[in-house]
Design goal:
Length: 255
């Protein structure tokens, strides 16, 4: 593991990328990846997307508190794309730190782990929205699922998509990619990095027709008029016409 001091970073007005790098070893190389969280700051309330990996929680909490102190918008909501540890591993600490916080998404199993907080869990389905004042956070269809319970999110102000394990890929620490968006990491072989991540984390992609999924993914981006993609595992994408074809190639590599 290594510390990354380049975050937080504002990737769209009012949307902040939080987290730290995680080392992954593959074929003699050390790749870095993110288990990122994102803070969406509205005029009436703020919302955190994901809690990050447990090892990153102290850093994510520090970054989040600094931004909230500057913006003055209280944290009221937490949205988690699914129950896997890199996404929800900080849930218990968030419930304790923010007594007024409500948790949103597919919350099917959380009451079993945190029974005394069951009244703070709010189930969401595609189309449900959370009002943050000058913007809304809307649950959208998860095209690439890691778990059955996966759900994606959309910030309506910046047209930012939060796809959880969709658009997952590693980056190269030795080339200074940490904290950069995808288009700034010019030496990154994004297609190859996407293929590596799919092989290791989304093994089912090797046994299905991924063209169906990537076509549906591109349809979703167009239908929702997405301007920014903020993946949990990967560098944010700010120029979709440049980067999405590379992601497509990576997802199709193991087909």
């Amino acid at each position: 593991m290594t510390s990354n001091n380049t975050l937080p970073r504002e990737i769209s007005p009012g949307v902040f990328w939080l987290g730290d790098c995680l080392e992954q070893h593959h074929k003699g190389k050390i790749y870095h990846s993110y288990n990122a969280a994102f803070l969406v700051v509205g005029s009436g309330a703020s919302l955190l997307v994901e809690t990050g990996h447990p090892k990153d929680f102290p850093e994510i909490e520090r970054q989040m508190k600094e931004i909230l102190a500057q913006k003055g918008s209280p944290l009221k909501f937490l949205f988690i794309t699914h129950q896997e540890t890199p996404h929800s591993g900080g849930l218990g600490r968030m419930l304790e730190l923010y007594p007024g916080l409500t948790v949103h998404g597919d919350v099917s199993d959380y009451h079993l782990a945190f029974p005394r907080h069951a009244g703070r869990l709010r189930s969401m389905e595609v189309g449900d929205a959370i009002d943050l004042g000058d913007r809304q956070f809307v649950a959208v269809e998860p095209v690439v699922r890691d778990l059955r319970s996966s759900l994606w999110g959309l910030d309506t102000s910046g047209r930012v998509l939060f796809p959880g394990d969709g658009f997952a890929y590693s980056h190269y620490h030795w080339d200074g990619h940490c904290g950069k968006v995808a288009e700034e990491a010019t030496s990154l072989n994004l297609a190859d990095a996407s293929a590596v991540f799919a092989e290791r984390a989304l093994f089912w992609t090797k046994f299905t027709d991924m063209k169906i999924y990537v076509d549906k993914l591109e349809e979703l981006l167009e239908d929702l008029d997405i301007a920014v993609v903020a993946p949990t595992h990967g560098l944010p994408i700010l120029d979709l016409p440049v980067t999405i074809p590379k992601v497509r190639a990576g997802l199709l590599a193991g087909d």
